[in-house]
Write a structure and sequence with these properties.
The complex is a heterodimer of chains A (372) and B (81). Chain A has 372 residues and is of the alpha+beta class. Chain A is built from six helices and 25 strands. At the A-B interface, β4 and α2 of A face β1 of B.
Chain lengths: 372, 81
Amino acid sequence: YTTFGEGLKWPKNQLTYRIVNYTPDLSQAEVDSVLGKALQVWARVTPLKFTRISSGDADIMISFGAGSHGDYYPFDGPGGTLAHAFAPSAGIGGDAHFDEDELFTSSSTKGYLLFLVAAHEFGHSLGLSHSSDPGALMYPTYSYRDPNTFVLPRDDVNGIQSLYGPNTDVNPDKPAPPPPVTPDACDPSLVLDAVSTLRGEKIFFKNSFFWRISGSGQAEQHLIKSFWTDAPDNIDAAYENTAQDKLYLIKDQKVWALFGYDLVQGYPKSLSSLGLPTKVKKISAALYDKNTRKTLFFTDNYYYSYDESRKVMDKGYPKLVEQGFPGVTGKITAAFQYNGLTYLYSGNRVFEYSPTSKKVTRVLSNSYLLPC
Amino acid sequence: VHSGPISRQADNDDALIQSYLKKFYNLTEQTGPHSKGRTNHMSEKIAEMQKFFGLTVTGTVDQETLQVMKKPRCGVPEVAQ
């Protein structure tokens, strides 16, 4: 996180806000409710209290405007800049302006969730600048998140509490949900949820995030929903069927098929739609073998084989992983095939297995494939 | 034999890049139409933006960097005047 420096914060904990005008995108009642909730995101973790006034000068004046709208920072029409806000100070300080040329929504993934945009802008109104943590609310670019399950990320909590301290009157019987922490590729104990190829790249999934390895070998971290709005977080497995040019994500008993950035029509489907027996309730990893054109589904120490050409489950499964991959031990948590080799993750160890010599060629650590 | 057309930023991408760096990374006008100083200053600002977003720092705008510049975002700059 970053702050605006020079102690740019409010010298008091009781702040006023005023909704100066409204957007036609939502009802006034919705705007009132959404903006109130967005302020509560910050009140919940600090001693700050917000009181709404309907006339006169409030600390935080909230307005909607398009193009030139009365300050030196004109908006730019649809897309691009969605809103801006000013650091704490008298006058325009603390005020938040929303670009009326944008479509603001209260729930759908179409347009921009006013709740998320407002909660971000109010972070500025209270003294936070932008964060380089891709999971932080104060990250500069917009990413859809479910407003019903939103919890202020740890980075933002650290930032705002560095200015105002923690909320001292929390109810010990109703502890707040723990702030989500952005996974760290340098964490030696990192256990990935899933790994896959994607059009020649390698992608690594953990919680709400995935890393992609850029051309120069650098790991770039992104929110899953910043690429695929409809995709789930905390997935169990992922595999790319290169023959179909589709990425499959699996979570519990559901399967999502993605083509590029788009969810394939008719998905999510059930796990059994992949040919797995209905008794299989959860899988821990999956990979598509482009040489044999078979998809392998792992359930901890066992695995199933699905023949993509004949569209049937191969007989004689499930097999013990050690039976099909001599030398590979432990529960399989992620798997993928790359450059003709099979990589089977068991916790933070990676077994590199050669299907030609039918043996484990190396046992690697996470950081060998996912650079720190 | 040349290795094919040198990929050029489309003109409107050039304008977008300039505007983005001015708005958010305090890119300032440098004297002289193509002075070396101007190019270095631009490259520094691109590198600064790439570093902030965890992209590969090259000082030149590649596809990934352009994609981030086109994403909807907040109007508050990372590097203020």
